[in-house]
Specification:
This is F-box/FBD/LRR-repeat protein At3g52680-like. The protein is of the alpha/beta class. The chain has ten helices and 21 strands.
Length: 465
């Protein structure tokens, strides 16, 4: 295999190969330099090309006639075939393929084939069975059909090589009994259907060495599900769930080795219980709301970097929890009463060193600001005295009195602050009347008597609106 530093050379050689094939098609005869390369290098080059183009190289010369059969990567897309040809082409290619180990097998079924054949389960079953017989290491199954195809889970018990499994869209995950996939390290379940909660439990518990799990749900049938995730070696977990949950469903996570966690869109579930995550390095909690009787933020006290895009009105906050390891906090300022959540976090994070406030949306949501005011706390949070060194506020709303008060408070109390940066949206030609007001804001903030005499204040204009 080529070293990673030779990627540019690989692209160059691939380009030469494609040019030679083009010239042969035009009837131009030139010295064949590519064919003189070692077979290992040629197979590596072919592995970077789509399977359809790899097979096309068989007409180049006698040397290339059977070379494609040893390429360890196969990729099929029904969009590139006529309906009656796709099944034949996939089957013929798989039966002719001779590579002892199949590094990856990607199957995308959509368009005309999925409409006419409804993603025939027999075809899918045969193709995946052949892939498992070839000791496949990465399997990606992307099906777009009017009905779901039941994935042949029974094959997992016979696989000792599968390391990555990615299932997308019209796939039904039905696992009536525990499976055994000791080699699986990465599992992505994106917009698939699950028969029941037991299928989820059996699938994940059957992957004892799982290190990365991605769950994406935007729509599913009306089935109450509890995602039980017990994974002793899981390091990265990403859950994006825009399905309106049920009080009888939710997430239960037990991952003692977890380092990176993302929760997004999880809403209206009966539970979202996160247990036993002592090694957590980074957590992102976005748009999570109305979880019954649970304390999501309070279960993350071991985290070192935390991003919050939630409202304290929609999620419970652990008033008695302390984030002893938290050094980096990023918070969104577009949620209701975000400033109260900020103070709760500052009071609970004694070692915080970096604070970033941001509004990544182009238009600020004013809902929640009317009738609500910033109330300066009586006691200064401990982190502002000896630890906070960096304060960044992107898309700072200079016309907001509330944001001005929050910024002033931090500047007046952060004794070890080294840098404070504020970015604002640009003023367009039709808004020249606002220029004077903005200049006034800059002077006011610059004139604040800062607790840190070494604090460097910077004002930046956003380059993207």
């Amino acid at each position: 295999m080529l070293a990673s530093g030779n990627s540019k050379n690989l692209k160059s050689v691939t380009g030469i190969m494609e040019q030679e094939q083009h010239e042969r098609n035009r009837g131009v005869v030139k010295e064949d330099l590519i064919s003189e390369l070692p077979e290992e290098l040629l197979l590596h080059i072919l592995s970077s090309l789509p399977t359809k183009r790899v097979i096309a190289t068989s007409v180049l010369s006698k040397r290339w006639r059977s070379l494609w059969k040893m390429v360890p990567k196969l990729e099929f897309n029904s969009n590139f075939h006529y309906t009656h040809q796709f099944s034949e082409n996939v089957g013929r290619t798989l039966f002719s393929h001779k590579a002892p180990v199949l590094e990856s097998f990607h199957l995308k079924v959509s368009g005309r084939y999925s409409q006419s054949r409804a993603c025939d389960e027999i075809d899918i079953g045969v193709w995946t069975e052949i892939a498992f017989e070839r000791h496949v290491r990465e399997l990606v199954l992307e099906l777009c059909s009017e009905r779901c195809v039941r994935f042949p889970i029974s094959m997992f018990s016979f696989s000792t090589t599968l390391e990555t499994l990615i299932l997308k869209y019209s796939v039904l995950v039905d696992v009536p009994s525990p499976v055994c996939m000791k080699s699986l390290r990465t599992l992505h379940l994106e917009s698939v259907d699950f028969k029941d909660s037991e299928s989820i439990r059996n699938l994940i518990s059957g992957c004892p060495n799982l290190e990365e799990l991605v769950i994406y749900q935007c729509y599913r049938k009306d089935v109450v599900l509890t995602f039980t995730i017990v994974a002793p070696f899981l390091k990265r977990l990403v859950i994006t769930d825009y399905f309106v949950g049920s009080e009888n469903g939710g997430y239960v996570i037990n991952a003692p080795s977890l380092k990176y966690l993302t929760l997004k869109g999880v809403s209206h579930y009966g539970c979202c219980l996160i247990e036993n995550v002592p090694m957590l390095v980074e957590a992102k909690i976005r748009e999570v709301s109305y979880i019954a009787n649970e304390n999501i933020v309070g279960s993350l006290t071991s985290v070192k970097r935390l991003f919050l895009d939630v409202s304290p009105l929609e999620i419970k906050f652990p008033t008695d929890s302390i984030f002893y390891q938290l050094v980096h906090l990023k918070m969104h300022t577009r949620r209701e009463e975000w400033w109260n959540l900020l103070m709760l976090m500052l009071n609970s994070s004694p070692k915080l060193q970096f604070l970033k406030l941001t509004d990544e949306k182009r238009k600020f949501r004013k809902r929640g600001l009317v009738g609500r005011k910033w109330i300066e706390p009586k006691n200064v949070p401990e982190c502002l005295l000896p630890h906070l060194k960096m304060f960044v506020w992107t898309r700072y709303r200079w016309e907001s009195e509330l944001e001005k008060e929050v910024a002033t408070y931090i500047l007046k109390n952060a004794r070890q602050l080294k840098n404070a940066s504020f970015s604002r949206r640009p003023i367009h030609s039709k808004e020249h009347h606002k220029l004077e007001e903005r200049c006034k804001m800059v002077k006011e903030l610059d004139g604040v008597v800062r607790a840190s005499s070494s604090c460097h204040l910077v004002f930046v204009v956003d380059s993207v609106e």
